[in-house]
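Protein modeling request. Please complete all fields; requests missing the sequence field cannot be processed.
Requester role: graduate student
Desired output: 3D structure, token encoding
Chains: 1
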Amino acid sequence: MRVLHDGSPLATDVDVADSTLSRARGLMFRRSVPDDYALVFTFDDVGRRDVHMLFVPFALDALWLVDGEVEAKKRLRPWVGLGVARADTLVELPAGAADDVEVGDAVVVEA
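Delivered output (111 residues):
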């Protein structure tokens, strides 16, 4: 599985949080993630999706997607970061991985 932006990989080591437990846990209690890592949250519909950084000791880039288009992007600070936007897919990446991604860009989660 990969996450692509303009045909280039943002992440090649991808986990999907598709259960209630995996969504609730997210990246909490991990010490770090690899540079090519992404955690993808998929939902059945577009809705308000929030992210918190409680118990996450490293910064992240979060992308909120609607039908594969970036609706919002935010750098989340360790421990205290918060973000919210509408999405049917949420992608969490290591800080800096989404530097070239802009709102309106296409991002594809490829199996």
